[in-house]
Design a protein that fits this description.
Strand content: 5-15%
Helix content: 40-55%
Order of helices and strands: HHHHHEEHEE
Structural class: mainly alpha
Number of strands: 4
Strand order of the largest sheet: 1-2
Number of domains: 2
Distance between the termini: 79 Å
């Protein structure tokens, strides 16, 4: 650890990295969770290359989470429900058709799963006359 960075500051930065991970990169939520101002986070980003690199490595956390949720929807999400008798049961939903279509439109383009607009054009001749002369 460098002399310029007191241990409590390092602990706060580590806590902020963990909070950013759990909040999927939401700076406001993460800052509130550890008790700092948003501006403090942005100052750390500017002044501390190691902290900035750690934050940059989190860019895919939210995307990975969204992809995992999309996968669950495509498979048919499972959820817990409470019966009238107080028993907890697992319910598996049918695969989500919209999620499957979205996936195919974004990831299946190479296999033809893409909406295309077909444009047709018709060129007509144009007569231009300048000073009585057709061009």
């Amino acid at each position: 650890m460098s002399e310029e960075q007191p241990q409590n500051l390092t602990i706060k930065k580590d806590a902020m990295i963990q909070a950013l991970t759990s909040s999927l990169g939401n700076v406001t939520e993460a800052a509130e969770k550890i008790g700092i101002r948003r501006e403090t986070h942005y100052a750390w980003l500017k002044d501390d290359a190691e902290y900035s690199a750690a934050v940059a490595s989190l860019k895919n956390v939210a995307l990975d989470f969204a992809e995992s949720q999309l996968k669950k929807l495509m498979e048919g999400a499972e959820r817990q429900a409470l019966t009238h008798d107080g028993e907890i049961v697992t319910i598996k939903d049918a695969p989500n058709t919209s999620a499957i279509i979205f996936y195919l439109k974004t990831q299946g383009k190479g296999r033809g799963y893409i909406e295309r607009q077909e444009l047709s054009t018709e060129i007509k001749s144009i007569n231009i006359t300048i000073d009585g002369t057709n061009i």
